[in-house]
Amino acid sequence: MSRYRFAVVGDNCVDRFQLPVGQSLIGGNAINVAVQLAMLGHAVFYFGAVGRDADGARTRDLLAEMDVRVDHLQMLDGETAYTNIDITETGDRIFAHEDFGVCQNYLPSEDDFAALAGMDHVHIGWIADRGLVRRRMAEAGTSVSQDVSVNNDQMHLGVDSLRIAFGSAGENREKADAMMKVFLDSGAKLAVVTRGGEGSAATDGTVLAETGILAVDVADTTGAGDSFIAGFLHAYIAGGSLETSLVSGRECAARTCGHVGGFPQKPQPL
What we know:
This protein is α/β, with parallel strands linked by helices and 270 residues long. The protein has a single domain (5-269), classed as 3-Layer(aba) Sandwich (UDP-N-acetylmuramoyl-L-alanine:D-glutamate ligase). Helices cover 30% and strands 26% of the residues. Strands 1, 4, 5, 6, 9, 10, 11, 12, 13 and 14 form a ten-stranded mixed beta sheet that branches. Strands 8-7-2-3-15 form a five-stranded mixed beta sheet. Strand 9, helix 4 and strand 10 form a beta-alpha-beta unit.
């Protein structure tokens, strides 16, 4: 397997799973993708911000433990982001409350942008940057993707300049098809959309690929979409076909559904 240099830019948070789980784990869109790519054997660098608090130190230490480089992690005055999560009887999660903490004001520094430009691929999670990172990467000629279905203001979620636009349409094939068309019409080179129980699809406007889901015993779906993105990038950046990349994504997502949280870690009590 080829080993690539990935950078993941954006959010992190402490996922606080409410009773009956009663545990907290480190997560967030960007961090989940970063850790999953590291678990797949790549050199991964995380670009984001945490507070100068216990949760910030915990996040930094866990990323290092999971072989994600934290050279560009900013430690800022303020609170590390957190999310309160309710779990249904079927294993689905409900985001009851989100506080983005210092992530709300995070932007890469000029030194960070210089480092990002040298990566094989940059993926963007939740970030309030008005599209700055994706445009700077495009100007530098760096391969870049973004998850545009995160809970964010639309001013931060354009797809122009993206090599890959990732979205989520729920179990609605018509909505997924329309979303992919919008992505391509708006400037993305490749559109990739998950469809819940209906699987996933990807198209570059010429080739369309689709795949179903893997049947698994679901412990928790938190981070499954992020894991799908990591699995897809793992195969696609190495030159895999759209179908191969979708299959890689669903396999990674299925593994994540087998445990609580976006990646394996020792939880802490609330």
